[in-house]
Amino acid sequence: MIIGLTGGIGSGKTAVSDRFNALDIHVVDADIAARTVVEPNKPAWIDIKEYFGADVLLADQTLNRAWLRQQVFADQEKRKKLEEITHPRIRDEIIRDLNSSKSAYTLLASPLLIESGQAALVSKIIVVDVPEAIQIERTCSRDNNDIEQVKRIIAAQLPREQRLSHADWVIDNSQPLETLDSRIEALHEELLQLESNLV
Predict the structure, then answer these.
(1) Which CATH architecture best describes the domain 2-194?
(2) What is the rounded CA–CA span in Å between residue 27 and residue 20?
(3) Residues facing 45 on adjacent strands
């Protein structure tokens, strides 16, 4: 059984997926897959370099993510092009990782689970949710992003209500972090029960 885990930027998906990982659940992280497919000299890296030009690379030949983020969140055409280059390859990488899983069930953690079509790979969805004000506050303090940039990223993601409409479970991550362990453990037990009913 593959369970999707998603949420907007700054919602705390990593805090949630880390806790599942600590319970010996294999976590396939779409962000890691996204970084893997654009490593220097891989096909996606070559296509990105050709489309965006030399400015997209840092001195060590890795992508200049901050520069690229500014480009694609300011220009919808560029964002579409980047998604065309990366999404199919990220999906292939994710599927490879999912197929290697040996845990009772598998978690696919992806910020774009629903809008990228990756939801087709999962049987249930957990949404990590916080109010937009908390998303902005966390992301600005974490990544040193300016507030306008964060708002543009949020605007480019699925609206909160729409994301929540896909949820089988919602984890309210505006609650104190110390309550997260017990809430994840309870959900983990529920998922193990669900998995055993399928076998």
Answers:
(1) 3-Layer(aba) Sandwich (3.40)
(2) 8
(3) none
Residue showing tokens 């037990």: 189
Which residue, among 98, 92, 140, 149, has the nearest Cα to 116 in the 3D structure? 92
Q: What is the pLDDT of residues 79-129, one digit of tens each?
A: 999 999 999 999 999 999 999 999 999 999 999 899 888 999 999 999 999
Whole-angstrom distance, CA of residue 160 vs CA of residue 192: 28
* Residue of 93, 90, 92 lying closest to 112 (CA atoms): 90
Distance (Å, whole) CA 174 – CA 75: 31
CA neighbor of 180 nearest in space, from 114, 126, 125: 126
* Position 50, amino acid: E
Q: How far apart are CA 131 and CA 61, in angstroms?
A: 37
Q: How far apart, in whole angstroms, are the C-alpha atoms of residue 8 and residue 123? A: 20
Question: Please, are residues 173 and 12 in contact by the beta-carbon 8 Å criterion?
Answer: yes
Helix segments in 38-169, DSSP class H = 43-52, 65-74, 76-99, 132-143, 147-156, 160-165
Q: What is the pTM of this model?
A: 0.86
Element containing residue 71 per DSSP (H, E): helix 65-74
Give CA 2 to chain center in angstroms: 15
